[in-house]
Amino acid sequence: GIFGWIESLVARESVSPEHVRKLAQALHTLGPDFEERRIAAVIALAMAGRLDLFAEATDRSGDPLKVRVTTSYRGNDGRYIPRIMRLWPQFIETLGSTDAVVDRLGMAPETVLPMLNPNEPNTAHLFDVLMRKAKENQHLAKYDEINALARFAPMSKELRKLILDQFTGERAEYWGALVA
Predict the structure, then answer these.
(1) Cα angle vertex 142, ends 115, 107, to 5°?
(2) Is residue 155 classed as helix, strand or coil in its secondary structure?
(3) Long-range CB pairs of 133-142, under 8 A, 24+ apart, other chains included
(4) For 165, how many CA atoms within 13 A lie in the half-sphere containing its CB?
(5) Beta-carbon neighbour count of residue 88 at 10 Å?
(6) 113: DSSP letter
(7) Deepest of 40, 83, 155, 170, by most Cβ within 10 A of its Cβ?
(8) CB 139 within 8 A of CB 169
(9) d(CA 106, CA 1)
């Protein structure tokens, strides 16, 4: 796929201006699978050391171009997250802040938290950021929040409280109670 191709070009120091131009063009792909093609282009540009082209890219209305790191609503397609997490410092440096990266890559708590793996580099920081955002977010299901906390903070007071709330609280959810 695209990642093996770009990794081999980078390893051989063979990334040409033409390769970079085609990757930059892919940021504006339309049609079937456009979201997958766009996020793959962003990651490939980062691997090639040209994330600046994504940082400068705009959509049709002139706003900064945004892509979605998960390509389905439920976030069941997490194949891009590990690659992004390995390149996280480069994303922060190029886009300016964690909030800018989260915004530009469409990282919503309800789609990304279920896909985060605590064994991947840089995920603990993103977990903290998304959990803070989750407090303002009405779309994050309690069972996703419980699962994320169980992976990242299994002995935390926050997880304990969340589990207890599923059995005794007014806002208990059916699936949340089953997971708890």
Answers:
(1) 35
(2) coil
(3) 133/102, 133/108, 133/109, 134/109, 134/110, 137/108, 137/109, 137/110, 139/108, 139/109, 139/110, 140/109, 140/110, 140/113, 141/110, 141/173, 141/175, 141/176, 142/166, 142/172, 142/173, 142/175, 142/176, 142/179
(4) 15
(5) 18
(6) G
(7) 40
(8) no
(9) 23
Q: For residue 40, give both structure tokens.
A: 């793959």
d(CA 17, CA 35): 24
According to the model, what pLDDT value does residue 75 have? Answer: 47
Categorize the per-residue pLDDT at 43 as very low, low, confident or very high, splitting at 50, 70 and 90: very high
Is residue 126 within 8 A of residue 88, CB to CB? The reply is yes
Q: Is the pLDDT of residue 24 over 90?
A: yes
pTM for this structure? 0.85
Q: How far apart are CA 3 and CA 1, in angstroms?
A: 6
